[in-house]
Amino acid sequence: MTTQNLPNEARAGQLLYEEHQARDQYSLMAQDYAPQTIAQAYACQKVFMDLRAESTGGYAGYKIGYATQNMQQLFGISEPAFGRILQSAVSPSGAVLSAEDYIELLVECEVGIRINEDITDGPFDKDRIFAAVGEIMVAFEIVDSRPCLGPRSIEQSISTNIINAGAVLGEPVLNWRELDIPGSECRLSVNGSQVGSGRGTDVIGHPVLPICWLAEALVARGEYLRRGDIVLTGSMIAPHALVPGNEVTLQMENLGEIGLSIQGK
After folding, report:
1. H/E run at residue 237
2. Which of 96, 133, 181, 209 falls between 20 and 30 A from 234, CA-CA?
3. pLDDT at 8 over 50
4. CB neighbours of 191 closer than 8 A, spacing ≥ 6?
């Protein structure tokens, strides 16, 4: 597709889409129309993901990245970032993924949040946002790490949707406000051996708190969290690479257990 006459964000999103579909490395940051600001990067992301969503059933929600201070310092930013989750990329526990569908398949261990009402304006404080959350569940974020030309940067990461490739969701828990979610330990096991652990406090003190930031960030960009949206709020365990033959289990106190199988050659 010829893109020379399109605005920079549209050219960028179209390029990312074509490279994603062709399984090529992302070359956006080596182009003269690469995003120079975070606002431009989000505009690129939206074009890129809207093109993917057109043929895959739309969006299921969002993922939040860089929620911890350490990750923000690494990228020289002062707040988290968000990406978009495609409806077609959300699966229940017990999902079987083919490694061949990904360039470099990884998994992150998170809490998933389901929004119970539209959040179109503030306040975006804890009481208001917690009241708007219907249920939470233990979740995997599926990550597909792809090579990129040019330097790694927050603009590159946001434009390419922070490498989200989907989610696997556990059973919803409705009475989560009565439970010690921050103090709950989670354990990641692969083929029966534990490979990582964390706690709910690892996500800025409580896995639901990042929703306050996301709700405000979306409204500032003319969007908003909608009733039914799923949000992954940040990993409690470092990303773990997966290969064919892996049987993956995530257990979290108070939220239960989910599983995932990887097939392929």
Report:
1. strand 237-241
2. 96
3. yes
4. 245, 246, 247
Measured CA to CA, the distance from residue 171 to residue 184 in angstroms comes to: 16
Give CA 192 to chain center in angstroms: 26
* pLDDT on residue 6: 64
Gyration radius of the chain's alpha carbons: 18
Check residues 150 and 142 and name the one with the higher pLDDT. Answer: 142
The amino acid at residue 175 is: N
Peptide bond into 151 cis (omega under 30): no
Token pair listed for 80: 């988290």
> Tokens at residue 159, please?
């434009």
pLDDT, tens digit (0-9, with 9 covering 90-100), for 72-88: 777 788 899 999 999 99
CA 22 from centroid of its chain's CA atoms: 22
Cβ neighbors of 209 (< 8 A, separation 6 or more) are 126, 203, 233
Report residue 263 as tokens: 């097939």
